[in-house]
Amino acid sequence: MIQTAVGDVADTIEFVTRIHDAIRQPCRCLGHHLSTDASIGIALAPQDGTDLDQLIKNADLAMYAAKAEGRRTHRFFEPAMDARAKARLTMEQDLRQAMVDGGFEIHYQPLLDLHSNEVTGCEALLRWRHPERGMVSPAEFIPLAEDTGLINELGDWVLQTACAEAATWPHQIRLAVNVSPIQLKNQTLALRIAGALAASGLTPSRLEIEITEAVLIHDDETALAILHQLRAIGVRIALDDFGTGFSSLSYLKRFPFDKIKIDRCFVSDIEVDGSAAIVLAVVNIAAARNMTTTAEGVETEPQREILRKLGCTEMQGYLFSAAKPALEVRRLLGAHREKAQALA
Ligand code: C2E
Ligand code: MG
Ligand code: MG
Description:
Blueprint: H1 9-23, E1 27-29, E2 32-34, E3 40-42, H2 52-68, E4 74-76, H3 79-101, E5 104-113, E6 119-130, E7 134-136, H4 138-148, H5 151-166, E8 174-178, H6 189-200, E9 207-211, H7 214-217, H8 221-232, E10 236-242, H9 250-254, E11 259-262, H10 264-268, H11 275-288, E12 292-295, H12 301-310, E13 314-315, E14 324-325, H13 326-343
Parallel strand pairs: 3-4, 6-8, 8-9, 9-10, 10-11, 11-12, 12-13
Antiparallel strand pairs: 1-2, 5-6, 5-13, 5-14, 6-7
Helix pairs in contact: 3-4, 5-6, 6-8
């Protein structure tokens, strides 16, 4: 909508309120009661642009900001929105370039059994070596790869590369790979995972797929079917970051997980507040349903000791080792095995 002769901000808000009121009027249609709503973006001339294209583009960015704020509201355009959109576009182009140039690598973080102190497996964690920015954290680029659909191609590369690497490890060492909810929307995922296993020669029971609760929130039939297919061929399934988000116990009923990974936030303050009681509750629920537990982000000896006493199965964290490049992990696994053999 174009409104001319706008006075001050109050005028504009009054106009937006009238639009919202009109749109929100429920209506009856073929016996149904229909209701609608809207997210509204506002750009003002001349400060936000003097030609129509610029004004529409900026109003559009403001509308996406309104959607991001929970929808059904309005936002005025701000120059920072444009800067963010440009930075995102640049990062998306860089991501596509990195796919072509081989700019990604995988680091592996060991998981340790809390009773035997043996390494039981390693988690594959993706790294992006950016030509100008150096190492970029997956927390920064995975969401963008998800939004752009690039995660499918990237995820396949991670699975193939990590399975090939794990096939060189001692046979009792498992590999854990993170899989995004977006990858689980594609019905061919189980087939592609089976392909990566076959190409590398890795036994399916040595592969563990880590998913987050986001997969289960919408009761997505495709995702559940894929998880069951994977389980049928022997792949293990872990629920990652448990304790963040909704953490509804009903998720544990929706799928028979092999493992629960207890989020780092419970481990970091396990010595000070009620976290120990929560960890114990999760450990007990897991044991009753034949699941193991891994505590994430263990950084200190006292944390490890408490987790061991609480009955947690495994730990992962800087106390033993951060994620390391493939070659270093091969050496670490070799040295660890020799040490264990010498002790035996
Ligand atoms: P995550 O799967 O929960 O991985 C654990 C994260 O905790 C990793 O961060 C790891 O480096 C970090 N961490 C491990 N031990 C400690 C510790 O003792 N202290 C602290 N402060 N942090 C610790 P990273 O590598 O930055 O990965 C972040 C997230 O990005 C991962 O969380 C995972 O959700 C996602 N991610 C990483 N690689 C992939 C991938 O290949 N595919 C997908 N879809 N997601 C990935
Ligand atoms: Mg994980
Ligand atoms: Mg996690």
